[in-house]
Amino acid sequence: MKTPSPWLKQAALDQRRPTPYTAFDTGEAVAAYDRLVAAFRERTRVQYAVKARPDRTLLTALTERGSSLDVASPAEVEQALDAGCPPQDIACSNVFADARELAFAREQGVTVFTADSVAMTERLAAVCPGASVFVRFAHGHTAGAAQPLAGRFGCPESEAARLALHAVGGGLHLAGLSWHVGSQQYDPTQWERATARAARITRRLRPHGITVEHLNLGGGLPGTYRTDAPPVETYAEAILAAVDRHFPRPHQPRLVLEPGRAVVADAGVTVTSVKAVVDRACGTYVVLDAGLWNAGLLDNLGGIEYRVTFPGHCEDAVTRPVTLCGPTCDPLDTFTAGRAYRAPVALVPGDRAVIWSTGAYCSTSTLVGFNGYPPVPQHVRAAVSEDARPCF
Predict the structure, then answer these.
(1) Inter-residue long-range contacts of 160-166, CB under 8 Å, 24+ positions, other chains counted
(2) What's the CA gap between 29 and 33, in Å, rounded?
(3) Cβ-count burial of 299 within 10 angstroms (0-12 exposed, 13-18 middle, 19+ buried)?
(4) Would you give the distance in Å from CA 13 to the centre of its chain?
(5) Which intervals hold domain Orn/DAP/Arg decarboxylase 2 N-terminal (predicted)?
(6) pLDDT at position 1, please?
(7) Which among 73, 75, 255, 266 has most CB atoms closer than 10 A?
(8) What pLDDT score was predicted for residue 387?
(9) What is the DSSP string of 224-280?
(10) 297 contacts 362 by C-beta, under 8 angstroms
(11) At what angle do helices 99-107 and 118-127 cross, to 10 degrees?
(12) In a shared domain, residues 203 and 72
């Protein structure tokens, strides 16, 4: 597990605070951003995915560090602008955006969009004439990703060049090619496969006098969950080497990266208490006061397994396999796990549990008041000094 910042660790282990609550350290997210930029040796423009966590303090901090912002809706356009991001540094990557959404973005000064279908390029040509467009192709290999994206997003490689020509013929500017290798991608070599596809598409476009100016490498860089992932430096080395192999310099496209959870996942932690420990014929259930609904842990339904610890018990305490649940009466409010969670045999109601790496996607995916349990409070630290004490 990545070592949390002193503030985040203190927030996680503070026994005085009533549970449940989530603490998020903006400084930790900014540090992750800086590490990512350094790992890619400043060869890649970072375009943070606002959907991962849209806190204004975070977006402002990242914008001030030089990050562009990736948005998908009018509300996210407004959030990006409110955080001080110039419209030319905002990219709308929603390939299903309708005419109203596109018109709003264009009115705010956004000029960069993404398309993966003829219908989308025609919509852009009609609503945003002259706009720049990335053509997104599908990455068919899903191995290594906790959440594969194949099927819903991206045109087939065989259609990408034709779609790019269609876009240019409609008066749009081809900004480049984009793809996504799957969310929480554990296999750094998947970018090699995708980059090879981009190179083949680029060669098909050259006879038509069209240059691919950018390669949008997409998202997929992981956070730290139950399954160990390589460090970001390993990903950067593999990705940059793949680009150098398939796009030799000096005519190499500029690179764009759209991280989400790699920036914010490890900067958040959810602190919860045990409500009940129930032994059934099929096993032991540990019910927490923070679950999938009220704590926004819906990523778990998509294959993300959070690391959970019990700070009131020694690391070498005797444990047993358990099923972790949230507080609601809904059967889906249960933590799915490829291998069973383990909890101390001595665990009792009132003991604390810490759910690590909850900084991504949780703050905006809670269900308001479901089953009478309000969303877990979100405490965001805007300061970056390491000696700041949690103040909830």
Answers:
(1) 160/135, 160/201, 161/201, 161/204, 161/205, 163/115, 163/116, 163/117, 163/118, 163/121, 163/135, 164/135, 164/201, 164/205, 164/210, 165/205, 165/208, 165/210, 166/118, 166/121
(2) 6
(3) buried
(4) 26
(5) 34-265
(6) 63
(7) 266
(8) 45
(9) --SS----HHHHHHHHHHHHHHHS-TTSPPEEEE--SHHHHGGGEEEEEEEEEEEEE
(10) yes
(11) 40
(12) yes
Question: Which residues are bridge partners to 44 per DSSP?
Answer: 255
Does 295 lie in the same domain as 219? no
Number of domains in the chain: 2
Q: What sign for the dihedral angle of Cα 184, 187, 188, 191?
A: negative
pLDDT at 386: 45
What are the tokens at 54?
């849209």
Within this chain, do residues 225 and 335 fall inside the same structural domain, yes or no? Answer: no
Omega into 377 within 30° of 0, i.e. cis? no
- Whichever domain contains 235, its CATH number is 3.20.20.10
Helix (H, G, I), strand (E, B) or coil at 293: coil
Q: How far is CA 178 from CA 137, 193, 214, 216, in A?
A: 6, 13, 8, 4
Same domain, 152 and 188: yes
| Under-70 pLDDT residues of the chain | 1, 141-142, 150, 383-392
Domain ranges, residue 293 = 266-381
Task: In whole angstroms, give the CA distance from residue 291 to residue 293.
Answer: 6
For 61, the enclosing helix (H) or strand (E) is helix 56-64
**Is position 42 within any domain?**
no
Residue 101: alpha-carbon gap to chain centroid:
22
pLDDT digit string (tens) for 377-392?
999 998 554 444 544 5
